[in-house]
Here is the input.
Amino acid sequence: MASLTGKVAIVTGASRGIGRAIATRLAQDGAKVIVHYGGSEAEAKEVVEEIRSQGGDAVVQHADIMLVEDIRDFFAEVQQRFGQIDIVVCNAGIAKSDAIAEVSEADYEEVFAINVRGVLFTLQEAALRVSENGRIIVVSSTVTLYPRPGMAVYAASKAAVKMFTTVLAQEVGDRHITVNSILPGATSPGMFDNVSDQMQAAYAASSPFGRIGEAKDIADVAAFLASEESRWITGQHIVVNGGATM
Here is the structure.
């Protein structure tokens, strides 16, 4: 895989889980990584320290994804500081699980504020600022294809960002920018860590490989989509779930 040396990459929600693995992998491939965090400054700094200890280049930067002005200021600062933005990975998100009959207005507002509005305006800034031949990657979820009870609000929010991906790919294609989404299945470390041991075992058994995904499994796909080799892939939604559902 070609090196990302000289590229500037933003990874939102990079303080833990899948975002952390993606940030670390892009740095290993040579990118200068902006490790975004919303509320976990100490963990974000740990990611930067890990990257630097491996010879990579990274900085930490805060933004509240629920605030559009914060997103705009974040991107403006990155571009002013580094002169370019080549790769944007929209990973920041939250999950809440409730039956439709029990969903609260507050939970709905929070999930959609981060997972939909936050991603939309992150993608808006990416569309305006990413360099020609750049890469935009959105982390969605396989629940958009295989929904389960209790996941209606989360699945709907992740389905929305799949649509953003498809449309944006058409809007920025004339600048040779690719836009794709990754649909992880059950993955650890990540949001799936909060489910019961019994459910984790059931998901592991559903894959021919007999395990749930690891964050690095997702990060490796993101690294490919960030590379020159992915230049002919855009507007696609790539399922990364170890064959747990086929």
